[in-house]
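Attaching the record inline, Q. Sequence:
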Amino acid sequence: MTSTSIHGMWSSRLAFILAATGSAVGLGNIWRFPYVAGQNGGGAFVLVYVLCVALIGVPIMIAEIMLGRRGRQSPINTMRALASAQGASSAWQLLGWMGILAGFLILSFYSVVAGWTLAYIFRAAGGGFTGLDAEQSNAIFLALVADPERLLAWHTIFMGMVMMVVARGVASGLEQAVRFLMPALFLLLLVMVVYAAQAGDFQAGLSYLFKPDFGQLLEGGGDAILSAMGQAFFSLSLGMGAIMIYGSYLSSQASISQNVAIIAVMDTLVALLAGLAIFPIVFAYGLEPGEGPGLIFHTLPVAFGQMPGGQFFGLLFFVLLMFAAWTSAISLLEPIVAWLVEHRSISRVRAAVWAGVTVWLLGIACLLSLNVWSGLTLFDKGILDLFDYVTANVLLPLGGLLIAIFAGWVLKTTVSRDELGATNGQLLYQLWRLLVRFIAPAAVVLVFLNAIGLI
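Structure, as predicted:
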């Protein structure tokens, strides 16, 4: 195993933390976590979620970064090399293929949704939210989704943005992008929280998110607990190869466990701040907080259209969303680009174009499934919904489970101790081994069975 990657290396620990946090922080953090928390006991759900992050997300993220740094290649070649070194079956490389397939499918529809965000940036900038009521807001969104040409234009622009960054490489592309985008995202989020505190019902937002209601949590039974477990797993961008490839660019001297702890805290902080930015505004204007995905594109434009300074802060909010989507999308395209460079011996620019155009073509199928091909279904789902279901409910949980099994049961303890800088009897190392071998796999199996409707 080499000490550096042929694709380049992060110049500093901070660069890696920003990149990995950018991969984890996406559109789901901005709307899904606050909404799910509020609907499942507020502060009680948050406590369960944080516990699940510590017991499931952190151990698997440590394992995924460790495998990436040990292999120093794309996820496919990393798993092939590590399996060979451990005397294990070459079939373990399928774990790398699963991650790349998941990233491909996710990015194909993620780019379409990110395109909606770009469209709303320009609508907000042009004062398009002023005086909107709920019916008008809904009509604007439905008109956008029903127009394949507009969706194609925004989808194309967003994929072009992603390809442009990835084509420039680790140091000049990925690192330079996250060094700007992640601080900007945090700054915009803090500005939105301050604005929500002044213009919205901040006390109601605080109560919705943080007031512990264990009765409501228990009333949800196992579903609420499983929801917290699933959110903890998915929010850290695990099982899709992105964290593994980012780990391959990490210095051998950097502490994996310390970095993962920081990333997990920052990821959770973004989700909580997003709730504090959104729900005070929603409650102040008597809007429905439980709208889920529609909260961003249906409910919030109505609020921004009624608020003082709403045009400017509506613009800031959708720029914030675009930054979150962009950093996540970059990490989804990177694994396949790295593999193409290794396997086909082509330049990074050509690899980024090949991979990006393939994703772009899949995205066209996704956006057409919202309008022209809306009658075309497979397993009672349109193309976009099918890609979403297969990745979230099958590929990602299975990928996370296999990562935990390989790191905990196949990889020799001498290797994991070396990568984690631990002695055999070190308490934290033994705790990680316990979690990654038994607790995390069992929890991911429960999430998987719940997702496919077996429990």
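The mean pLDDT is 91. Residues 310-344 form the longest helix (35 residues).

More tomorrow.
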